Predict the 3D structure of the following.
Amino acid sequence: MIRVVLVDDQTLVRSGIRGLLDHTPDIRVVAEAADGAEAVGVIAQASADVLLLDVRMPHCGGIELLQREQGRLPRTILLTTFDDDDALLDGMRAGACGFLLKDISLERLAGGIRSVAAGGTLFRPALTERTRAAYERPATAPALALGAQLTGRETEILALVAGGLNNAEISAALGLSEGTVKNHVSNILAKLGVRDRVRAVLRALELGQI
């Protein structure tokens, strides 16, 4: 069972998401909070696998909570709208594993939670070109050279990582062994000079690799 903590200041949103997830056999909302300040104590007692975190809340919003509690939160999905591009980028930098829209279908919501719980990320296809453009900045020549070292296969796998697929799903999609995919992911992290999949996606966006 995937245990979820839901943090959103809107009671109706929390009720709606909980109601949707009640229809899944393997996901349950085990605790709720109305803002980031309240969430700290709730999360500490919940032993959650995934945190669904609203971006904008009174007292302490989702980005502030991520920045303040880096390394001490469950794997986090930001709940947002298309108008939150800057906040999404801040959230990604602070360690969020992806984001979902609040008006999402049950299938996409449950799939996203399962993917993140299994170690995946959720940056595409919701990551719009407008968001990508907002993040990109002129890169130095050494940085461009570093990104250029990725092989075609590594670039393909990195795009699937950005799409939220975990190693097993990438293995099935490309017809590779899971061990081979794991080795490719390790090589990607090393070449991009980052320590995890989320930062690899951010770095690849910066370099225009995906």
Remarks:
- Residues 125-145 have pLDDT under 50 and may be disordered.
- The first strand starts at residue 2 and ends at 7.
